[in-house]
């Protein structure tokens, strides 16, 4: 059983969700500010391993997968673009159930407990994904969650354990149904690009240069070769704060670094969360 309550404090809207599990209650609270299209978790469902036990005790009753909205949007899109569907991985779910710092601590001191929960999640995720694929969802998928396991949060070998071993199965299932996978991961991915290729990913985004990331676009292109398409490298903060002439120089630099030979799609590293757009952001998008 789930209980929900909502309230406002000034320009902020709050939601509290309580899950009544066989082993006790779990609560989470979320906040959204007026004019900002993103939500912050101010309290997470899982505070410790006792809460993880409660979460695992919840009876799992899968519902039919409805992809009618995806098929309708793909029909509306026609040949003007490629439908991309987001899908989360086990680390995405697990990291967001905990406060992130607590999650990282648990991966270090109680990895077996976290991996057990992720083993449960991957079987559920694959079953849902398989049904969606069989009903025609796709053809392109953006796999969300790997960034929670990138350096400096987890070392590369831990990334293999908590991310690659699970996501490889998701990628293989999508490939079996003729789809393509773009692996989404902000942050420091230089040493992980070869791992992304090993996992079978077709592409990755947003390939951030320093200081947000740790690899220049030209180097990323050299590492990826023809094995991994690159998407991104145009920082959202630049679109929000720089002048249009500066944006033009950055766009030209990106294209010079990665356009040759194909396999690169320039795009912003994130989407604006403020509405309406500022005049500067609008003008920079138009110049881009």
From TrEMBL:
One GO biological process this protein is involved in is: porphyrin-containing compound biosynthetic process
InterPro entries (UniProt xref): UROD/MetE-like_sf (IPR038071), Uroporphyrinogen_deCOase (IPR000257)
Q: Which residues are in the Uroporphyrinogen decarboxylase (URO-D) domain?
A: 74-267
A GO term, aspect molecular function: uroporphyrinogen decarboxylase activity
Which Pfam family, any one, appears in the UniProt record? URO-D
Recorded protein name is: Uroporphyrinogen decarboxylase (URO-D) domain-containing protein
**Endpoints of the signal sequence:** none
